Amino acid sequence: MPQYLITGGAGFIGSHLAESLLHKGHNVVSIDNFDPFYAKEIKEKNLEQIKKTASLCGLDFHDIRGDIRDSDTLDSLFQKYKIDGIFHLAAKAGVRPSIDDPVSYWDVNCKGAACVLESARKAGVSQVVFASSSSVYGNCKTAPFSEDMFVGEPISAYAATKRADELLCYNFSHLYNMHTICIRYFTVYGPRQRPDLAIHKFSKLIAKGCPIPFYGDGSSERDYTFVTDIVAGTIRAMTYAEKCPYDIINLGESNTISLSGLVGLIEKELGKKAVLDKKPFQPGDVQRTWADITKAKKLLGYKPGVTKEQGIKKFIAWIKEQEKA
Ligand SMILES: NC(=O)c1ccc[n+]([C@@H]2O[C@H](COP(=O)([O-])OP(=O)(O)OC[C@H]3O[C@@H](n4cnc5c(N)ncnc54)[C@H](O)[C@@H]3O)[C@@H](O)[C@H]2O)c1
User: Fold this and answer.
1) Which residue of 22, 107, 284, 319 has the lowest C-beta tally within 10 Å?
2) Which amino acids are annotated catalytic?
3) pLDDT band at 323; cut points 50, 70, 90
């Protein structure tokens, strides 16, 4: 039975990925250091849910608490558990905070990725799927964004770290024939979404009747992608890594919505009008993200199935459930 390592398994996407792998019959090992970017209790709850799923599926889930920058911890993890592939998701996420703290973003995202790849190489792990980001496209003028576009002008430190990691993945593939697939996620949402992200923040504030921080004139656009679609594509990328030494693939819904449109969807679902606290457009934020998913469809058989209307409905239902609990 294959066993996968998820770095950042206690986080939003990592916890969904862990459950999905378990449902597919795989054992899972997670390493997470509970980075203080958001509350530890949220990540503990995510882990509890994964453990329940593992026990229901009769499979193993190992919850390792450690830092990916600590090579000794990684080496002993690889000695203890036989790992068939790594989903490398652990990172300092978030565009805006990276502008205030580029040094720790670089340290976790780049040194961390190097430590994971190097320990994996020493342990003979030959497949890695790396969670990159649509932010690498910066303010690309042509949309939708396709993987062959120029991505040499990141406009945030976070984006620069993700692009650097993609290059490091290429290097490990070239030197050591480690198969590395970089998947560029386009803003992911759904139950357990990080509390710093717009959909989560807005939904909670609107529900309470509090003003929402509204950056720019509302015309900025995002290609929000529901987490179950992202997880399905991510798992398919691991299968693709069996035969492909290196690739970069977008995972998005390939359908954009403006900031004003997004607020409208949340208002409709909550049955409440938003109070806007208008703020200037933020440096580091891109005007638009929009994924060209031709490559993902062709190579992974990826087919996003959740529309923004359906996804926001599911997300608000989850928020309401959390409030009751
Ligand atoms: N959520 C999105 O919209 C989105 C979009 C593009 C890319 N991504 C990428 O996907 C990945 C997962 O994102 P997420 O939204 O689930 O974020 P998240 O913050 O919920 O998950 C990341 C996890 O990594 C852990 N982590 C951070 N530093 C670590 C370290 N030094 N050692 C061990 N663990 C560490 C955190 O504690 C957290 O649990 C990240 O790499 C992120 O950059 C996310």
Assistant:
1) 107
2) 158
3) confident
Q: For residue 34, give every residue at least 6 positions away whose Cβ sits within 8 Å of its Cβ, in sequence order, or none.
A: 10, 40, 43, 65
| Residues in the chain, overall count | 325
Kindly list the domain boundaries of the chain, sorted by start residue.
3-185+226-252+285-304
Q: What is the pLDDT of residue 1?
A: 81
Helix (H) or strand (E) holding 265: helix 259-270
Q: Which fold has domain 3-185+226-252+285-304?
A: Rossmann fold (3.40.50)
- Sign of the Cα torsion 170, 172, 176, 180 reads negative
Residues 9-38, mean pLDDT to the nearest whole number: 98
Instruction: Say if residues 258 and 220 touch (Cβ distance below 8 Å).
Output: yes
Classify the C-alpha dihedral 265-270-276-279 as positive or negative.
negative
For residue 69, the ligand 1 atom closest to its alpha carbon is: 31
What single-letter amino acid sits at 239?
T
Cα(27)–Cα(6) distance, integer angstroms: 11
Whole-angstrom distance, CA of residue 12 vs CA of residue 10: 7
Distance 287 CA to ligand 1 centre (A): 23
